Amino acid sequence: MTDQELSDRDRAVLALERRDWPGPGAKERAIREQLGMVPVRYYQVLNALLDDPRALAHDPITVNRLRRVRESRREER
């Protein structure tokens, strides 16, 4: 893996975040089953990815959408 590539785990986190979820609990269940992570850790990794230029290069639509969501939540506080 070069410095420009995301890890398999990071790519899997972004792929999971691209999906639509049918109802409450489905996403958390997928996080546990597909990634073997607890949701708190997943969101820590995801938040770090939003600031990683490699993630932006890999999936600009998802990263930019999530950055907008994060910023709007910060403004609400």
Describe, in short, the structure shown.
This protein is mostly helical.
Explain this structure to me?
This protein is an all-alpha fold. It has one domain (8-76). Helix content is 73%, strand content 0%. It contains 5 helices and no strands.
Which keywords apply here?
single chain; about 80 residues; mainly alpha
Content-based structural category: mainly alpha
E-strand count: 0
Strand content: under 5%
- Count of discrete domains: 1
Terminus-to-terminus distance = 39 Å
Q: Which stretches of 5+ consecutive residues score pLDDT under 50?
A: none
Number of helices: 5
| Topology order in helix (H) and strand (E) letters | HHHHH
C-alpha Rg (nearest Å): 13 Å
Give the topology.
Blueprint lengths: L7 H11 L7 H10 L3 H12 L2 H6 L1 H17 L1
Helix pairs in contact: 1-2
